[in-house]
Design goal:
35% of the residues lie in helices and 19% in strands. The protein has 286 residues and is of the alpha/beta class. It has an 8-stranded parallel barrel with strand order 1-2-5-6-9-10-11-12, surrounded by 8 helices. The chain has a two-stranded antiparallel ribbon with strand order 3-4. The structure holds (5S)-5-amino-3-OXO-hexanoic acid (KMH) and zinc ion. (5S)-5-amino-3-OXO-hexanoic acid binds next to β6.
Length: 286
């Protein structure tokens, strides 16, 4: 991997619209119902996103890994958009490991795979080696492309071990996402991000980054300048600018697309994103 932006011609913009942490009661504009998730997906695709990272909520707007809810969301977003549909296997910090593995039953294009346990504020986000290893192999078997989530520099070591132990993921591409600024993980700084990029295994074919909260803009700028791709969305950041709360996820996508375009790395189309990530064609009639 190189830290130069040379040769990277477009920008993969991922939107993570919901997450598992914000409460609908505190943030009514957070998309939590199926209808809200689908309309968010449509608007974010129009604004420049090509990949959607989904956490699903139940009828009470609480995080759920219920198989029916997951399947309904994957099918509905796939029907309404051309976005690469990625389901979170991280869920919430309260979800049991066995249930997190069942996310693959919903047949997403991609799944997140966090490469290690990390402190998560006052909680612990658990990702022991046997879980990572099982998830990796099951994703290979089901032809789902993992996105390796790196919350800390030590997670790069686990990525190396996964590749050494099990070979390349389905599709042959290795895409990682640096999640910076989680209290307990690597900080949302250019220095930390560049340290992570410098350590990436040579098998990595693309990387993106997100900064949680106030790290959002600095990490976006750092990633773009170094040839990385972007993740934005209300899962990670709900403040558009000082004193202004995000009203819709597409505001964050549109700003990322504008900055990427200004830097002559315009948003990838969904077709280009599918090629970059090596996802299997699951849309009917294609
Ligand atoms: N909600 C966090 C505990 C992922 O989606 O894979 C974990 C998370 C990572 O958001
Ligand atoms: Zn997530």
């Amino acid at each position: 991997m190189t830290t130069s932006s040379a040769g990277v011609t477009g920008t993969l913009i991922t939107v993570a619209p919901t997450g598992a942490e914000h409460a609908k009661a505190d943030l009514p504009q957070l998309p939590t119902t199926l209808e809200e998730v689908v309309s968010t997906a449509v608007r974010c695709e129009a604004a420049g996103a090509s990949l959607i990272h989904l956490h699903i909520r139940d009828a009470e707007h609480r995080p759920t890994l219920d198989a029916g809810h997951l399947r309904a969301a994957v099918d509905a977003v796939r029907e309404a958009t051309d976005l690469v549909v990625q389901l979170s296997t991280g869920g919430s910090v309260h979800d049991p490991l066995e249930q997190r593995l069942t996310v693959l039953d919903a047949e997403p294009d991609s799944c997140s795979l966090t490469c290690g346990t990390t402190n998560f504020g006052d909680d612990v986000f658990l990702n022991p080696w046997p879980f990572m290893s099982d998830l990796y192999v099951q994703a290979q078997e089901r032809e789902v492309v993992p996105e390796f989530e790196l919350f800390d520099l030590g997670h790069v070591h686990a990525l190396r071990r996964l590749l050494d132990t099990h070979g390349l993921p389905f599709g042959g591409r290795v895409h990682v996402d640096f999640v910076t600024g989680v209290p307990g993980g690597m900080p949302a700084t250019t220095a930390a991000l560049m340290a992570g990029v410098a350590m990436l295994p040579e098998e990595v074919t693309s990387w993106s980054a997100t900064g949680i909260g106030r790290g959002h803009l600095p990490v976006m700028a750092a990633a773009l300048s170094a040839g990385g791709h972007l993740r934005v969305g209300m899962e990670d950041n709900v403040v558009f600018r000082r004193g202004q709360v995000v009203e819709h996820n597409d505001e964050l996508v549109a700003r990322a697309a504008e900055l990427a375009t200004l830097l002559q790395r315009p948003p990838l189309t969904c077709t280009e994103a599918r090629e970059l990530l090596g996802v299997k064609e699951r849309r009917s009639g294609r």
